[in-house]
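Encode chain A's predicted structure.
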Amino acid sequence: MEPGDQDAVRQFRTIAELHGDVAWTIDLATGLPGYISEGVLPLLGYSFADFNAWFRKPDSASPLAPLCGGLKERLKRFAGGDLSRQRVQRTYEQPHRDGRVIPIEITSTLVLDASGQPSALVGTLRDISEQRERAARQRRFASMLNHEFRTPLSTIDGAIQRLEVTGAGADEATRARYRKIQAAVDRLISMMDDYLSPERLAEEGNRKPADGASPAMLLKEAAEQLRAAGREAIVDIGHLPAEVRCQPGGLRLALKVLVDNALQYAPPDSAITLAGHQADGGIAFLVRDSGAGVPEDELLLVFEKGYRGSNAVENGSGLGLYMARSVIDVHGGNITAQNVAPCGAEFKIWLPAQGGMGKSVASKVINSDNSAQQLQG
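Encoded structure for chain A:
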């Protein structure tokens, strides 16, 4: 091995092991492991010698067999032109030497030689026990919220329906209040069904979440939401990357909140503008209406939890913009509002770009929730 190659191998090992992952390499010419981090011993209970012995007899009944399951088929598919086989990630249950079962995430990449042929397989092993437990805690928390909110809302829902039935003789102002309460209850129940129901949580838990989306497609989906509401949408899509790294459902929710907000405050016969372009080392989504705008002293306050503006419409909980901001904060971006001439408000979502021009991964806006204080086939 040339000195430069040795340096590259050492750099790979260092990078791969930065977060405690177990790095490994396999020489495809010999079919034998070239390196496995020492961390594999506490992780799985097996040493490099154990791995080496098994790779010399890969057809034996070894508890290590799942680590490289499907490698031959993977190489065959790659040779047939399936480039998706160059980098593969999967999870499985790996038996520890002491009998425990460890949930493992394995990521591997085929390293190509000068002629474009696979010469080595490199990758990492990661214990995802803590990740699974964190996801389980999040599901339990969401389920608890769903129950705690749904119980009083069901009580309110039943009471307001009874009032509407028994209050037929009430004056119009009173009946309008009944309708306002019913609409607010329906909206909150619908939001819980969309994001906190046991069925939705189970669905999300049983599939690997997407980690990217097309910015242009997200804007087009938002435009369809406007048209479905009977409103004109003006879509201005500038030069955008083919994909932005994100949690698509969360980003769709944030855009939906902004579109709903525009629908509430824009004149019924006016168009709403949706735009997207590169900005400040990332990408920006804009939702612009031609309503009365936001009072200048409330431009920052509208994103606070439960805040209702002085010009708030009847239907609203004060949670929508707060939820949108929370989602964007998690993505390392920010969300802002400003008034535009001659009239109306413009809400902007900014997200850092992954790969390319000088990305930023921290929100540029300080707010109350973000303050200064397989080896596989």
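Residues 231 and 269 are 7 Å apart (CA to CA).
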